[in-house]
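Dear colleagues,

As part of the handover before I leave the project, I'm documenting each prediction I ran so the next person doesn't have to rerun anything. This entry is a single chain, and its sequence is reproduced below.
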Amino acid sequence: MNKRKIDLSLYLVTDRRMLKGLTLIDLIRKAVAGGATVVQLREKECSSREFYQLAIMIKKIIPPEIPLIINDRLDIALAVGADGLHLGQSDLPVEIARKLLGSEALLGLSVENIEQLKEANHLPLDYLAISPIFPTPTKTDFSQPAWGLEGLRLARSLTDLPLVAIGGINEENAAEVIQAGADGLAVVSAICASADPEQAARTLKGKIEQARKKIG
């Protein structure tokens, strides 16, 4: 695993259940062509072998500058030589994951409240996912209320770590999320459920770039 400077701007989180007539590989090809800068493989229901095989296929087809991040599964990340791992609050402790991954791997953590964010400031992480920004039907197990834009602004003021915003983000609200302090947008349904994922990614990337220009 070789750590590189990571462009978090358009962070695709996969969900095969949402795909409209495409394979996961087709979706990822199109999303990357449209401007996705990170691919996170998230698989909650498939077997370890299938997860491994999917990760191997994805690693082969995405450009080397696009990091492959594995959700939750340290064993899969290590087995396929992924660029990094993303953890939730109920997953393996960050310190243990870092020890096993080594210093070069990318390591991210989802935080759902201010207390978790403050704790994360003392952990060996590369970025945080602020989750969820808006209520979202794709993930219903949150125990905390949505952060909202004001919560995102507060989060930005409390950490120097790069922040990825996730939850209910689409082309209508993408710009304001960037302007509120996110370094990148993590999206699931906005790309995975689109009939044209390449164009969906391109539109989102354009919104991000426009918002950054306004920030200066």
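The mean pLDDT is 95. DSSP finds nine helices and eight strands in the chain.

All the best with the project,
I.
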